[in-house]
Write a structure and sequence with these properties.
The complex is a heterodimer.
Chain A (H helix, E strand, L loop, with lengths): L2 E4 L3 E3 L5 E8 L7 E7 L5 E8 L4 E4 L7 E6 L4 E6 L8 E8 L11 E4 L3 E5 L2
Parallel strand pairs in A: 2-11
Antiparallel strand pairs in A: 1-3, 3-8, 4-5, 4-9, 5-6, 7-8, 9-10, 9-11
Chain B lengths: L3 E4 L2 E4 L5 E7 L7 E6 L6 E5 L3 E2 L7 E6 L2 E6 L9 E6 L6 E2 L3 E5 L1
Parallel strand pairs in B: 2-11
Antiparallel strand pairs in B: 1-3, 3-8, 4-5, 4-9, 5-6, 7-8, 9-10, 9-11
Classes of the chains: A mainly beta, B mainly beta.
Chain lengths: ~120, ~110
């Protein structure tokens, strides 16, 4: 059984940065992607970006380009999401999830295991 | 980026009803479409991947169809635990996107 455990809630000042971790267990970390999704209060799910650890390749939603960095440490099976220049609109629950990638010959990139979510509050 | 739309944005239904939610992509995404159920305070849960394949452990009252730009999620015989928000998500381009969600509540 794959388990993703995220770091705890954070309160940050506007203009600062936050780094959220996501530790995986019970599966082959490097064989799948890890993706990050957030949900602001009263809003829907928003894909931020992802990484494929065995390729050490990441990609990001255009909206977050230049502000977000996603990394992975294969030695500890942990992925990280670093968001800089925080503003109040970044207050949200941040989720990591496993990107399953491909099922046989089709690659729908569904997110089949999720972390418990990390609340990040940006407030002065 | 590929834009995803969903309709309706919300609906009210009764236990036992059949509910249909539509998702449309701004360009063809083949069958690279996934559906999620999200309840407050919990992580989202994948229901259907690749447009029509039921995720393991998901009840068979959930079904998905479509390809190209138009997709449908159907919930047959709605159960109390199905009241939630449902999202579609495209996995076609390297920049994944979710639809805005459809909230299903009790009539």
């Amino acid at each position: 059984q794959v388990l993703l455990v995220q770091s705890g809630a954070e309160v940050k000042r506007p203009g600062s940065s936050v780094k959220v971790s996501c530790k995986a267990s019970g599966g082959t970390f490097s064989s799948y992607g890890i993706t990050w999704v957030r949900q602001a209060p009263g809003q829907g799910l928003e894909w931020m970006g992802g990484i494929v650890p065995f390729l050490d390749a990441s990609n990001y939603a255009q909206k977050f380009q230049g502000r977000v960095t996603i990394t992975a440490d294969k030695s500890t099976n942990t992925a990280y999401m670093d968001l800089t220049s925080l503003r109040s609109e970044d207050t949200a629950i941040y989720y990591c999830a496993r990107d399953h990638g491909c099922h046989g010959g089709s690659c729908p990139h569904d997110f089949d295991y999720w972390g418990q979510g990390t609340l990040v509050t940006v407030s002065s | 980026d590929i834009q995803m739309t969903q309709s309706p944005s919300s609906l009210s239904a009764s236990i036992g009803d059949t509910v249909t939610i539509t998702c449309r992509a701004s360009q063809s995404i083949s069958s690279h479409l996934n559906w999620y159920q999200h309840k407050p305070g919990k992580a989202p849960k994948v229901l259907i991947y690749a447009a029509s394949t039921l995720e393991g452990g998901v009840p068979s009252r959930f079904s998905g169809s479509g390809s190209g730009t138009d997709f449908t999620l159907t919930i047959s015989s709605l159960q109390p635990e199905d009241f939630a928000t449902y999202y579609c998500q495209q996995g076609y381009s390297s920049s994944f996107t979710f639809g805005p969600g459809t909230k299903v509540d009790i009539k």
